[in-house]
Amino acid sequence: MGNDSSKVPEYTTSLSVFTPSEQKQISKIFREICEANPTAIMFRLASAGLAGMMQLDKEKKKQKKHQQQEQMKAIKGGFGNPHLRQYLQKYLPAKLIDKLYREMATIGGTNNVKEKVFVVALASILKGSLEQRAHVVRKLSNENGAANPDEVMELIEDLLKVYISICEPSEQIKSWKIENNNHSMPRTNIPAGMMFNETDLEKWISRSPLFLHIMDLVLHACFNVSYIEGASSPWLIPKIPVAKVTNWEFTTLLDIPSLILINSHIPPEFQKKWRLLFSSQVHGENFAKFVSNIKNQGPSVLMIKDKDDHVFGVFAADSWKLNPDFYGTHRSFLFTLAPTVGVYQSTGINDHYMYLNQGQATLPNGLGVGGQLNYFGLWMERDNYGVGHSKAEPTCTTFNSPQLSGKPDFEIEVLEVWGVGPEPGEDVDADEDISILDRDPGAEALLELAGKPRASHGLRDKQNDNTPDQHDLPRDQYKTVEG
Fold first, then answer.
1. Angle ∠(102,106,110) on CA atoms, nearest 5
2. How far apart are CA 370 and CA 382, in angstroms?
3. d(CA 285, CA 268)
4. In whole angstroms, what is the distance from residue 139 CA to residue 132 CA?
5. Angle, to 10 degrees, between the axis of helix 130-141 and the axis of helix 115-127?
6. How far apart are CA 312 and CA 374, in angstroms?
7. In this predicted structure, what is the pLDDT of residue 188?
8. Hey, which of 9, 166, 272, 344 would disulfide with 399, CB 3.0 to 4.6 Å?
9. What percent of the chain has pLDDT over 70?
10. How many CB atoms sit inside 10 A of residue 227's CB?
């Protein structure tokens, strides 16, 4: 979207980015925004009673003709802010609708948005370059100039709420029974004096494709333009797996933002389906039962809530199997979900990714991830269920992760494991499309900005600029580990 009326001549160029089918849909959307609310007279008919029906029927016919004339005038004259509010109120909060309208109006230099201006605006909103999208982000954050972190955080929190609301009818969301949905958590304190212009924002969003997915889904839901009219838009598919659970007899440790975060980091062939393998709330507190349920089940996500209310875990890229030695691949990673958010991937220093052993007199018996024997990044005792440790002084060598738990030696409150991807024996679709979100280095930026303080990556170099990267917003609340 532009800053002055000189951009109106860009209509022809803007129109060319849309297919003929999309152009037709845009014209239809424009007419729908411009048209007056058709429900007012129907409300009067419903409330008039039988005695007044005939008179109202005559009035309806008369007003219908008048309404058509007025609609033609409205379409020619364009739409104002009340029209856009009415059209988008089921999606966006009023403050964002108002900002969108004012920017559209600025393009044409008039109070009403006409069709050519609308086309220019939508070309930027729906098919814009990173520079144009950064402009949209800045305008929705702060219309008058550079945005501060608090304004950017507020925008992303709003977009996340809208995203979840839009996705609620989807197969993916319906398959989950999530009571612990913390996407509206209080936000962290913001460093004073930090401001981000459009160049800063462009650098940030170029490293945050998950944020772009969130924003694109929201804006395509607002202005639903698809390649083929009437077809389902690929932009409206949420990046959330379908859950397979026989009976939701438990409360999952996940909320929707955390689910998006973890799923965006695991390999793409495992992102579509999750199935419950073990929950201590369902299957009891028994290590033998736990091992029986998770062995030979393919890649999995294991999560622990300790008695200090820390939530953390591991994505195990291979099946769990009894083995007196470390095994696995570099695709495994550790993560934290509360009270800080962080994803810690392989450093390449060693290959101590997974360890599961029992019945050995001279070796540790239990489940471990990262580090070394008796000094794991994450460890669960076999012979004393519910007890474990997370050792990191200063970090776990395998993943450069900090201490995950509240205390180095922790007690388990809840243990939960999900198998991800196809079940054992099912074929993995090697030709499955790879999303730009796969292994997204900026995925957790969305969550930290929406209110979850984030721990820093182990492998990331310290940023030397003030770009609002996932490491810079909000800077003072990080549980930072320099590695």
1. 95
2. 17
3. 32
4. 11
5. 110
6. 19
7. 40
8. 344
9. 73
10. 12
- For position 123, what pLDDT does the model report? 95
Helix (H, G, I), strand (E, B) or coil at 141: helix
Residues shown for the chain: 483
Residue 40 and residue 48: Cα distance in Å, rounded? 13
- Looking at residue 183, its pLDDT comes to 44
The structure's pTM equals 0.73
Distances (CA, A) of 408 to 7, 386, 403: 59, 14, 7
| 269: DSSP letter | G
Nearest to 129 by CA among 221, 197, 196, 198: 198
149 Cβ partners below 8 Å, 6+ apart? 190, 191, 194, 196, 468, 473, 474
Q: Which residue type, as a one-letter code, is found at position 417?
A: V
Handedness of CA 104, 106, 109, 112 (dihedral sign): positive
Please give the structure tokens belonging to residue 35: 């048209």
pLDDT for 441:
44
- Residue 6 DSSP class: G
What are the CA-CA distances from residue 378 to residues 190, 365, 368, 396, 483 (Å)?
32, 13, 6, 9, 19
Which residue blocks in 78-114 are alpha helix, DSSP H?
81-88, 94-108
Alpha helices in 148-305 (DSSP H): 149-167, 171-174, 198-206, 209-222, 256-265, 280-283, 287-294
Measured CA to CA, the distance from residue 312 to residue 338 in angstroms comes to 7
Long-range CB contacts (within 8 A, 24+) of 245-250: 245/175, 245/177, 245/275, 245/276, 246/276, 247/282, 248/177, 249/281, 249/282, 250/279, 250/281, 250/282, 250/416
8 Å CB contact between 391 and 408: yes
**Rounded to a whole number, what is the distance in angstroms from the first to the last CA of the chain?**
41
Alpha-carbon distances, residue 208 vs 126, 161, 182, 438 (angstroms)? 17, 18, 21, 11
d(C-alpha 337, C-alpha 360), whole Å: 33
Which among 40, 303, 63, 34 is positioned nearest to 180, based on CA atoms? 303
Residue 225 DSSP class: -
State the pLDDT at residue 62: 66
Q: With a cut of 70, list the residues of the chain below it in pLDDT.
A: 1-8, 36-75, 180-193, 227-235, 427-483
Residue with the two structure tokens 């033998």: 288
The predicted pLDDT at position 57 comes to 66
> Distance of alpha carbon 367 from its chain centroid, rounded?
31
The beta strand positions in 317-383, using DSSP E, are: 323-327, 333-338, 342-345, 354-357, 366-372, 375-381
Helix (H, G, I), strand (E, B) or coil at 142: coil
In the prediction, which pLDDT does 459 show? Answer: 32
Whether residue 319 contacts residue 425, with contact meaning beta carbons closer than 8 Å, is answered with: no
Q: Determine the Cα–Cα distance for residues 6 and 445; give it in Å rounded to an integer.
A: 35
The secondary structure of residue 153, as a DSSP letter, is: H
Cα–Cα distance between 454 and 402 in angstroms, integer? 12
- Token digits for 243? 């859950």
